[in-house]
Amino acid sequence: MSTVGRQVISGIFISLLLFILITIGYLIAFPIADWSELWQRQVLDIPFIISIPSITIAFGIFFGIFSGLNWRRQLQAVDQLLHELEEGRTVEPKEQTGYIEIESINRRVVKIQKQMNEQVKLSQKLATERAEGQESQIQAIISQERNRLARELHDSVSQQLFAASMMMSAINETKSNQDDRETKQLKLVEQMIHQSQLEMRALLLHLRPVALKGKSLQVGMKELLQELSQKVSMTISWKIEELSLDKGVEDHLFRILQESVSNTLRHSKASKLEVLLIERDDFIILRVVDDGIGFDVEKSKAGSYGLQNIYERALEIGGATKIISIPKKGTRLEVKIPRMGEGKESND
Predict the structure, then answer these.
(1) How distant, in Å, are the alpha carbons of 188, 200, 273, 274 from that of 330?
(2) Which position has the higher pLDDT, 302 or 269?
(3) pTM for this structure?
(4) What are the b/e assignments for 171-209, b being 16+ CB within 10 Å?
(5) Which domain holds residue 224?
(6) Which long-range contacts (CB under 8 A, 24 or more apart) does 300-304 make?
(7) pLDDT at residue 211, as a whole number
(8) Phi first, then psi: what are they for 99, rounded to 5°?
(9) Residues 62 and 211 reside in one and the same domain
């Protein structure tokens, strides 16, 4: 039941109590010998038994509507405050309402927002400190292992695929009959080897060290996407604005991009990939969109290590992740990070 409805019912109930009290007082002041006199006695040319209940009920309804509308306006203001708080917007203190309880709620909402902002600042600060303190040691170990795997794959599997591709190409060129079944099968094998080479190039690119190494986030993203566009048969476009961010935030955003692109290469079967990094309304927005086969987001949340890693990295720096995927239409991943101060150059 709405606030107005509840207040109207309360007003009617109060009016009935008022009617009873007025009736008792009237009968005490003007005793009657016969109850039929209630129809004979009049107030404003209307029988007493009708006029008094009508007046009190009308008063109760009017009071209920006025009170309900007033309370609904106050509650809607509180709901709007909570909605702004949920969206991460800055909550401004409301004007004095005259209601101590509502003003107390307003003060508490503003206080909660300040606490949330402090927690986000602390999370980003801790992420920055952790990235600065551990990056050198962790990245050294990771880089060594990734380089080792990349070298082994390049020296063995990649070279063997290249040799197999050359051999199949030479065999197909020597075939005189290009329409027989055996030649078609050999061409199919050659295409499969070529596709495996593309996937191997993407894998080798993914295995390369991912540290920014003193570069800004924008430079690191552009280099990654430019090199990727040269290695895979996929149209890659990007719009990357120049932003000044804390080192920890840059590090997390770069790794989120890498994880997202890796998922696209391995699973999406996409032909186009778009990357966007912008700042709007005090939010840093990273968006990755492809035109692949899509997937069930709810089912993949629990079972995908890559998606879970993206959610956790965004959460560590106070951000939120939204993924929309439509079968045969593609996938859109968006990470929004609140801007908490001017930040500092990532290569300081």
Answers:
(1) 28, 23, 10, 11
(2) 269
(3) 0.53
(4) eeeeeeeeeeeeeeebbeebeebeeebeebbbbbbbbee
(5) 119-338
(6) 304/263
(7) 58
(8) -105, 120
(9) no
